[in-house]
Amino acid sequence: MEVTAVLTHERPFLVVRVVVYQRLMMLTKAQSIAYVADTGPPAVSLDVILCMDDSAISPVPKLRLAAAFNRNCRCLIVEEPALARELQAALSVQNAVTPASYLPGSMMSATAVFLSPEDVQQLHAAIQAIERVIATPSYQEQVLSWADPIARFNRGGHGVCMGYDFHLDVSGPRLIEVNTNAGGLLLNGVLARAARACCSEAQSMSVGCKDPARLDRLILEMFRSEWQIQRGSAPLRSIAIVDDQPESQYLATEFRLFAELFKRHGWQAMIADAAALVLHGSTLTVGDDTIDLIYNRLTDFRLSEPSHAAVRAAFASGATVVTPNPRTYALYADKRNLTVLSDRAFLNSLELPSATIDTLAQCVPQTLLVTPELAPQLWTERRRWFFKPVMGFGSRGAYRGDKLTKRVFESIAQGGYIAQARVDPATRANPTRDAEPLKYDIRCYVYRSEIQLTAARLYQGQTTNFRTAGGGFSPVFYARTVA
């Protein structure tokens, strides 16, 4: 059955005929999405295709296309059978797997986020500018002044699986925080390989990185590099993926993914509870196995808890390569560092290129250390601030200022918090029609200033979470070049 209607727009002589089809596209879906987005709120759903001569509208620039997709595309681009196949291959299991048995609910989203080439270029520029600052002696001396003394041990290395988290606003990417044990790299690799483009325009885009099939090789090279920086040409034989009670962790499946990747490469791999490690002289073991390198997933970033004493001693003595480690955290991820990265006067003193400082001024929101003296002003201006614990992670203990009660703020005002200028997350259309849009942030997995994979996290609520129906890690599509 065909339903037709003629709509007249303000553009001279432009007549649009709307025809309802079942998946028959007279224009490509991307052209129809972009056109609807440009001419105001859509009068029809995505199942309605705008039919016109291609010459009636100009080609859709890629910079505009990403915003149009995020605003209007409700397609589910990750199907369970494809996800199951990719997960089965990555876990090296013989029998077919059911994703739900390995992935907790709301961990992975079937909905994609779209970035423009300009977004991607700005993300690269922001990360490279931040890492230029971190490499300077003056910056390091400043941030190490408030770090745990163990961070003074410089064993080399850059830290594996670094995560840079951004919100996107009209002015470009804005850094929210840096994580030195960012989860999700291999999980998002599986998700990117399972994703299928929903239209011809999306088929021309990259998913997560230029070549998701190459991601495993990049990860192996990253771990090999961390080893060689400290051990030179000595062979790397064993890697332990270490956390507290790893089998009960939310991302336990990712630990298995890393272990299988390492095994396929010929390295012995084990998943170990930090409390089970024992240091014998210069040898770290778990059970009967010797550990050459620890992939550290602990959220005790200073390794100060009693159950982490063996890991701390192995790092301090150099007995084992630990990555990421307390020094990595102190240089990159302590949230007090954001007060330095957003301090233009300090940045000017580093004698860096003006372009680097301008990039940081644009991408790093103003951040202040909360003190009792500053508390009255911050309470008055609380709507413009987001409050985070200095040693926090996973959005725990984080509060949007306009949601704060006086009682909670009085606790924050005692110290141990930063106040970061509020940057609201961008949103994209919810696949469930008439549901509230999904918020998202962008996570760039980085090693030595280079982005290995870009992913998104979709959610609803005050802070990023994995409790939202249809939310979770999300594949990112982006055009390879600027139109």
Describe, in plain words, how this protein is organized in 3D:
The chain is α+β, with helices and mostly antiparallel strands and 483 residues long. Helix content is 32%, strand content 23%. It is built from 17 helices and 22 strands. The chain has helices spanning 29-38, 62-72, 80-91, 99-102, 117-134, 137-144, 185-194, 200-203, 215-231, 252-264, 309-317, 326-332, 337-341, 344-348, 354-363, 375-380, 406-412; strands at residues 4-8, 15-20, 48-51, 113-115, 162-169, 172-179, 205-207, 238-243, 268-273, 277-280, 283-286, 289-290, 293-296, 321-323, 367-369, 385-389, 399-400, 417-421, 426-428, 438-447, 450-459, 472-479. Strands 4, 5, 6, 7, 19, 20, 21 and 22 form an 8-stranded mixed beta sheet that branches. A hairpin with a 2-residue loop joins strand 20 (438-447) and strand 21. The chain is globular, with a radius of gyration of 24 Å. The protein starts with a strand and ends with a strand.
Q: What can be said about this structure in brief?
A:
The chain is α+β, with helices and mostly antiparallel strands and 483 residues long. The protein contains 17 helices and 22 strands. The longest helix is centred in the N-terminal third of the chain and has 18 residues.
